[in-house]
Amino acid sequence: MTLIEVGRNEKKTFRMNLLLQKYRILGKKGEGTFSEVLKCQNVKDGTYCACKKMKQTYDSLEQVNNLREIQAMRRLSPHANVIELQEIIFDKKSGCLMLILELMDMNIYELIRGLTHYLPEFTVRKYMYQLCKSVDYMHRNGIFHRDVKPENILIKEEVLKLADFGSCRSVYSKQPYTEYISTRWYRAPECLLTDGFYTYKMDMWSVGCVFFEILSLHPLFPGSNEVDQITKIHDVMGTPDPSVLNKFKKSRGMNFNFPTKKGTGIERLLPNASPDSIELIYKMCTYDPDERMTARQALKHPYFKELREAEKRTAALNKSKVEETSPRKVNIVEPTTPEVETMQKEKKSIKDSESDVHLIASLPKPQSLPVHHLYKSKKRRHKRMVESQHQYSSQAGLFPKVPVHNSSINPSYHSKSFQTSFSKIHDSSDMSLLPGIASTYKTHKSTNKTSKNIFGQYQLPSLDRRGAGF
To answer: Pfam families, from UniProt (predicted)?
Structure first.
C-alpha cells in the first residue's frame, strides 16, 4: 500500500488530476453518508479498483494516518475475507482524501434485492462461513466493526469480504461508546437500552440479523424508530428475563418496563430453513450479550461441519502437493581412485591416533583400588578427593576454551512494533470470551505465576501501545 500527498502550492483542481494520472474513472459505484465510491481502472496495468472519496476534509497527514478506518484495514490486511486497502491519496491544499480499494462485484443487499426465489442453502452457508471468519479474525485482533449490515458485506465470485471500517472501535477502548451506532435494523438490544455500554458482542447480533435476511430475503427487525425496534425484537424473541434487563438498567439513566410477552419465534418466519440454521440464528441473536455466541464458537457449529471438513481436505491436499513438488535431497558421491581411497584411510587413521593420544593425556590416570579400600576412614577418602581435584586442574589447560559472544538475547524493538505489543493468541478454549457487560475490562490474578486475563484467547494489549489511535 502506498500513500500519495499533494503539495500546498498546487491548485485545488489538481486533486482529481492526480487521480486521473494513475487511474481512469469509469463510473460511480455508490454513495453513502460519509463517502462516495468510484469505479476506476489503473492506467498502467489495466487492473480495476474502487476509489472511496471521503466527503469530510482533513487538516494534516497525521490526522489521516490516525483514522480508525485506515488503521483497522492496515492491521487486518491481508486476510481473505477483509477488504484490501491498496493506496491512499491525500490533497493537503483541499484536505481531500481518497482510498484506493480492491473492487468487488456487489454487496449482499444488491444480491438479494429483487430476488423472487431463495438462494441455495449451500451458497448461504458459504457466505455465512466467510462472514464469521472475517468477524472472528477482526475480534481476535482487538477490533469490533459496529456497523455489520448487508451493504457493508461485499462479494465477488462467491468470495465474501467485510468492508467499511469507518465506525470500528478498539475492544479495549474505554466505555461508554457512541450510543447511535450501527444501522437501526441490525442494532443489538444493549445498544438500544444502555448509554453506550456495549461490547464486541454487538457484531454477532448484527451477523445473526444478516444471516436471517440472506435466508428469508427480508430484514428480521425493521424498526421505524428505537421504540419500534425494541418492540419488533420482543415480538419475535419474546421479553427477556428481568435479570437481563436489570443489567441494562444499571447502565441507563432512565427506567424501562416491558410487558411480558412470548415471541412468535424465528421458525415461523423461516419455514424452509434447516434446524441447524435456526439454532445458529438463535445463538447469534441471544438477548443477553454475555450469553451470546462468539464468532469462534459459530465457526465450530454443526451448521458449518461440511465446510470445515472440506477445508481440512483441501489443506491436506495442498500439503501433499507441496511435498511432491519440493526438491529432494540427493547425496552426490564423487568418483575416487584406489590411490585417493588409500590416502584418505591413512589420514583418518593418523587423525584417530592423535585424538586418542590427546584424550589419554587429558584424562587422569585411573587408580585400581581394591574393594576393601573403599571403606577406609573419612580422612583417606578426603585426601584422595583433593589429589584427584588437583590432577584435573593441572590438565585443564589441555581443553580448548569456549568463546563467549556479547550477543543480545532480546533485541530492542520499537515500542510500536508487533513483537513487543501483542501476545501470542492461544486457541485453547471454545468458551473464551472478551469482556461482557457486567465485567468489562476487569482483570483477575490467577494462581499461576503468569497473570491471565479473563479475555482468554482474545487477550491483546491496548491498541494505544501501537499508536493505532482507536
So the answer is: Pkinase
